[in-house]
Amino acid sequence: xxxxxxxxxxxxxxxxxxxxxxxxxxxxxxxxxxxxxxxxxxxxxxxxxxxxxxxxxxxxxxxxxxxxxxxxxxxxxxxxxxxxxxxxxxxxxxxxxxxxxxxxxxxxxxxxxxxxxxxxxxxxxxxxxxxxxxxxxxxxxxxxxxxxxxxxxxxxxxxxxxxxxxxxxxxxxxxxxxxxxxxxxxxxxxxxxxxxxxxxxxxxxxxxxxxx
Length: 212
Known about the structure:
The protein is 51% helix and 12% strand. 33% of the residues are buried. Strand 4, helix 7 (141-158) and strand 5 form a beta-alpha-beta unit. It has one domain (23-210): Rossmann fold. The protein is of the alpha/beta class. The protein is globular and about 45 Å long.
């Protein structure tokens, strides 16, 4: 039994090394249930679909790492960034804030948490794509407007790519969401992936061109 465990560990670490050697660039996704793929199979979540699309187009030196956790807020992002930092990601896809807004966190707190993650990622050499979120209108014009502005301000302040609304064309469309009307179904995730893919592909090309 001891020998079996040792062999298993050797195979595990050999496999990890092989993955690292083949994947020169890591794209790290930090999000909540929308990005974790709650309610769909792991391979149906849009980050995994994006990875498959990259491979389809012959971009095989990129590894997708989905560090998203259902129910998470921006407050947990720094801890996760530190944990996944050991992988030395080239790109951070930051898709947090929805749960913050739904829980009524202050705009200042949301902005502070996201800014800390972005600045830390940039200091570690990562380029950042920020995915904006929207809140239901029942939260009031003042709060929803200020919430939306957080993403616009951060994108301008740190000169990063912004997707104004991650669920554009998906949110509120019954055929693209699960029964809870909140989380995308498989088809919804496919639509998100198709919308995000051109930006991600361009971003990776630009990032590669900047490498010494």
